[in-house]
Specification:
With 112 residues, the protein is of the alpha+beta class. The protein has a three-stranded antiparallel β-sheet. The termini are far apart.
């Protein structure tokens, strides 16, 4: 798993940019305006996101339009899936254990 992706998404402003770009491709000025950031701050965050492979830029006349790249997010989903299976197994084991306890408790009630 690419650590740069986690590092990039850990910052609330960069996460906000990703959330905005999930809806539509946007130029840096609109991203800055919506997140109430300066344009230089926004450009810096976009550079980090681009280095992590999360966004790509498309030149359009005199603007640079940023769009979300889904491949790194799919890689993240695949990586998280391994942990999801692990937790589901642990929850299944807990559920089995709780059912056993309930049966023991029910057996005690019937004997009394």
């Amino acid at each position: 798993m690419n650590v740069k992706i986690f590092s990039a998404l850990a910052d609330p402003n960069r996460f906000g940019i990703v959330e905005l770009l999930r809806e539509e491709s946007l130029p840096v000025g609109i991203i800055a305006e919506r997140l109430k950031l300066s344009q230089p701050q926004t450009s810096k965050h976009l550079r980090v996101l681009a280095e992590a492979g999360l966004v790509q830029v498309e030149p359009s006349a005199n603007k640079r339009i940023y769009q979300l790249r889904t491949v790194p997010l799919q890689e993240l989903e695949t990586w998280l899936q391994t942990y999801r299976r692990l937790w589901e197994e642990k929850f299944d084991n807990l559920d089995d254990y709780l059912q056993q306890l309930q049966q023991v408790d029910n057996n005690k009630d019937h004997k009394e």
